[in-house]
Amino acid sequence: MRELGSFPAYRPRRMRAHDAVRAFARETVLRADEFIYPLFVKPGSNAHDEIASMPGVFQVSVDHVLDAEIDELLELGVPAVMLFGLPAHKDEKGSEAYDEHGIVQQAVRRIREHAPSMFVITDVCLCEYTSHGHCGMLDEQGNVLNDDTLQLLAAEAVSHAQAGAHMVAPSDMMDGRVGAIRAALDAAGYADVPIMSYSTKYASGFYGPFRDAADSAPAFGDRRGYQMDPANAQEGVREALLDIAEGADMVMVKPALSYLDVLHRVKTECAFPTVAYNVSGEYAMVKAAAANGWIDEKRVVLELLLSIKRAGADAIITYHAKDAARWLAQG
Ligand code: PBG
Questions:
Q1: Could you read off the pLDDT of 93-128 as tens digits, one per residue?
Q2: pLDDT value at position 182?
Q3: Is the beta carbon of 207 within 6 A of some atom in ligand 1?
């Protein structure tokens, strides 16, 4: 590398003195077309229920309320949604997750019909659909059964693709699920449907508000038997490499902000399309501080999203997507 000049010949402030040179020197730029907005869909009609711990985020019914959300996102230039479902019924095996008339399947069909340009990604997991709130089937001792769960996840992914999902995103953290889902999609004629794997997902306290939003808290125990230990970074890279080998098209680091080091390593060491999930607890903290007037919400949100992108994210799943898109358009 060429040697840099030193003071007084090199004065970094010269490139900070004017908007124009600041723009020339800028290394990272946020764009609304790299945002993915999570949407919670529920049964019923005319439902637009704000989630208490996530101000500005709503559970919506699959009717004109959902249409309006989609229209708003497209107007703001946000091109993609990630769907989560609140099922009408829960049971031991999470049956509604892979029911062709399930809530997510209905929402996918509605969005595809209403707004063909919206890119629809579905979260593939069982925790919202099981009576016990765990991400897979249980044995008698309450342990999550890995290999028996794979078939259910594969059936769920296929049913989302049948409904018209553009992309499926398994978030359960069972071993081998990307390979099982890839094989099932291919066998069902969906070889062109890509998989965004929640490859590097930590057992995090930052999912608290989401579990209220999706009614998916485990009835007993926790998820440390399948989600990753927050202490581990190398293992995070290994998880991503494993999913790539099984056929993932994108990998993910989740949560984002406490794991920017992991995000950077996954992006640089795997050299693969990488998405970061700016999760519910991260959103809730910002909203709470902003509501108290303790931080400037716009500045802080744009800085946080920029830091996620700078660390290596190609796309960002964020509840701030609408606000951030609006602010970016204002310049
Ligand atoms: C489902 C799932 C969770 C989130 C996304 N998919 C919850 C969990 O794993 O407990 C969390 C998203 C967020 O906190 O915003 N498995």
A1: 999 999 999 999 999 999 999 999 999 999 999 999
A2: 98
A3: yes
Supply 197's token pair: 């794997």
Query: What backbone torsions phi and psi does residue 199 show, to the nearest 5 degrees?
Result: -70, -40
The finding on whether 171 has its CB within 6 A of some atom of ligand 1 is yes
**What is each CA distance from 111 to 37, 80, 82, 119, 316, in whole angstroms?**
14, 11, 12, 9, 21
pLDDT tens digits along 56-90: 999 999 999 999 999 999 999 999 999 999 999 99
Q: Which of 202, 292, 189, 191 is nearest to 254 (CA)?
A: 202
Domain regions of the chain by residue span: 29-330
The question of whether 254 is a catalytic residue gets the answer yes
- Report the separation in Å between the CA atom of 21 and the middle of ligand 1, taken as the mean of its atom positions: 41
CATH number for domain 29-330, candidates 3.20.20.70, 3.40.50.1100, 3.50.50.60, 3.40.309.10: 3.20.20.70
Pocket test for ligand 1, best of 82, 129, 204, 216 (most atoms within 8 A of CB): 216
For residue 205, the CA-to-ligand 1 centroid distance in Å is 11
Q: Catalytic one among 42, 90, 93, 201?
A: 201
Q: Any idea of the CA torsion for 291, 309, 29, 301, to the nearest 10 degrees?
A: 0
H/E segment holding residue 316: strand 315-318
The DSSP-derived string for 151-181 is HHHHHHHHHHHHHT-SEEEE-S--TTHHHHH
pTM equals 0.97
Neighbours of 21 (CB within 10 A): 12
Catalytic site includes residue 90? no
Please state, in angstroms and rounded to a whole number, the distance separating the CA atoms of residues 144 and 93. 11
Q: Which amino acid is at 241?
A: L
Q: For residue 173, which atom of ligand 1 is closest to its CA?
A: 16
Tokens 């209905």, located at residue: 106
Ligand 1 atom closest to the CA of 135, numbered from 1: 16
